[in-house]
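Render this sequence as a predicted structure.
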Amino acid sequence: QVQLVESGGGLVQAGGSLRLSCAASGRTFSSSVVGWFRQAPGKEREFVAAIRWNGGNTYYADSVKGRFTISRDNAKNTVYLQMNSLKPEDTAVYYCAASFASPSFIRYSHPQDYNYWGQGTQVTVSS
């Protein structure tokens, strides 16, 4: 049984940084696509970033491009989201998601294509 656990959220001031972690148990991330999504109160869940484990291809929402970096650590079976230059509009609950289907068939920005989800970690950016 695959379990995803996010960590690293917290309260920061605008312009600050956080690094979120997504650790998997029960299965390695190999041959997976791992994504980060976020949901602010009263808003729809939105895509943030994704990474193909094999090859390390990365994808970003326009709103975070140049500020956020998604990466992986094979030895730790962990995916990270480095968040720099944070803005108040980045405030949300951040969720880690994974799919173990063939990456060729995954639409990385579509939540419905991920079948495993973490419980989320709160990120709050104050101005």
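Summary. The chain has a mean pLDDT of 95. The radius of gyration is 14 Å.
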